[in-house]
Batch of 2 targets.
Target 1
Amino acid sequence: MALSDDIQLLAQVPLFQGLDSDQLRLIAFGAERRNIQKGQALFREHSPAECAFVVSRGHFDLYVENRAGELEFRDRAGPGTLLSELALVTMVERKFTAIASDEGEVVRIPRTLFHRLLEEYPQVASLLESRIRQNIVELALAATRMAGRFT
């Protein structure tokens, strides 16, 4: 795919909405495209996360390990989905396993590239910080709503 296609894809990702074309170009130029075969794991739960992925083509089934050590389906991610966004900011563990449900392609965004974006465009940091903070709040609220299931 062309650099312009990657910029267009990144512009659709909620975390990156509002970034200008130069900022998106920096990410797109430094990112790496990867083809993933059907049934191939993109990453596994509990593995270290040094990058995030944007799904550009295909779908990925997201699983979490249950107490018996078996994978349980949780969700499906399609084009435009950003997986492991917190990995862009700091070292974290993957919270789920992502397996290609069909042939797909992802854009790999390393943490170092994201940090370069923040260094070159400091104004972007406050915008992205508020979006990440809002995502964490929404996650916490969803977990609170589910608390009754676990007591």
Note: The beta strands are 32-36, 41-43, 48-49, 51-57, 60-65, 71-77, 82-83, 92-93, 97-100, 104-110.
Target 2
Amino acid sequence: MTKRYTSWQRGEHLREWAALRHIHRHAPDLVPRPLSAKLAARPPTVTMALVPGEPLAGSPTPEQMTAVVAAVRTLWRVPPVCSGIGPWSDDLEFGRRLTTGPRPAGGIAAEAFDAALAWWNGPDPALLAGPPTVTVLGHRDPNAANYLWDGRRVRIVDFEDCAVSDPATEVAIMAEHLSWRGVDALCALFDVDQPRLLAARRLWAMFWLSLLLPGGPAIARNPPGTTETQAARLLDLLDH
């Protein structure tokens, strides 16, 4: 299979090629086997072997969730130091995408915006700015469709956003991704730093709200009412 990139300004092709080669070296049955790459082409391409399985969708079964957790933990055991992927850095810029933008006109989205603005004066930003005690190689794009179920196990694809991360943040990114909203007990499946998990969930919920506001890139891909639902979720996390 050859992947042709529609955008590569952030080095998506370089990051994915480096990640696939590194992960395949340490966990060869977890990700597609990298075959070749044309990184200087326009558009750049990465060719990889096909892996068996169908994308997860809807509400995964308990068996599938057990396999997802096993796959994620396998990824976390891969050494996080990888040529082509930079060192750890904080994610605060993703929260700023909401609060440095214009305030929504009104309603629950405006209420969530105001609560998010106040969040910056609390302890969470300082907690997330500090380097974690444990780092892992993070997938960072946990759309459920990127987890392929073959009836027995799960493999992971799409490493354009792969980065050095930490377990709590990785669980937070997954829990707050719209595709995992039907899995209420997801966070309980991982043993991670709870204060950091909650702080990161708040930050990534802000990021999703920023994408769902009028003019945002995610609003057209989601049904009406998603923005209000996301605003309510952010308020709930901030009130937790």
Note: Strands lie at 2-4, 34-38, 45-48, 54-55, 136-138, 147-149, 154-156, 163-165.
